[in-house]
Amino acid sequence: MQQLPEDWHRGIVVVAHPDDIEYGAAAAVARWTGQGKDIRYVLVTSGEAGIAGLPPAESGPLREAEEIASAKAVGVHQVEFLGYPDGRVEETLPLRRDLAAAIRRHQPELVVLFNFGDTWAPGFANSADHRAVGRAALDAVSDAGNEWIFPELTDAPWSARWAAVVGPKVTHAVDVTANVEQAEASLAEHRRYLEVLSAEPVQDQVRAIVDRATGPIEGFPAERAVGFELYQFGG
């Protein structure tokens, strides 16, 4: 198991919903901002369909505010929402274009994505939004560096060096032993969402989720780690 490269300065995390980052990558983000790296978040939706009993017009602004607070807990101060409809995201050329535009705008060396496979684990289907956003974003990493694919984009082409996917297939990892408390604080900012999600106390949910996301990884010498599947590009 290899160490994820860290000889870079700027990264972006692209996900479908508020709380996606906190379910997987937040501890790694805390490590990186602690190193002085510039990390930014791009969320395709506002998660407005995510709270049972709360209409989207109320839920969307609430979940955006929770995500902005969650980002600050791990040292991230730029959070962008693209406004796609929660639960109805499709893997389309317009989505690829908007994500390519975001990559050109933020000029990351590393793009972090969320699991876009068909399942979380055997027998557990992944969200349609996760699949659509992850696959479109991985294509958009290449699109952003090609001046001819979306010529209507006004920002200059930009080629990231890597994409790192948080998911079940792991090729690289980072040691987050010192960042678990920050990850817990970040997830705890999604209090309203977690209160509706389960009857368990929020802090118990937070601890269990972060423990799953930051356990030891076979072959990697760290007590707590976050694993990624790494893709290399020509940047």
UniProtKB/TrEMBL annotation:
Keyword Acetylation: no
InterPro entries xref list: GlcNAc_PI_deacetylase-related (IPR003737), LmbE-like_dom_sf (IPR024078)
Keywords: Hydrolase, Zinc
EC number: 3.5.1.-
Gene Ontology molecular function: hydrolase activity
Name of this chain's protein: PIG-L deacetylase family protein
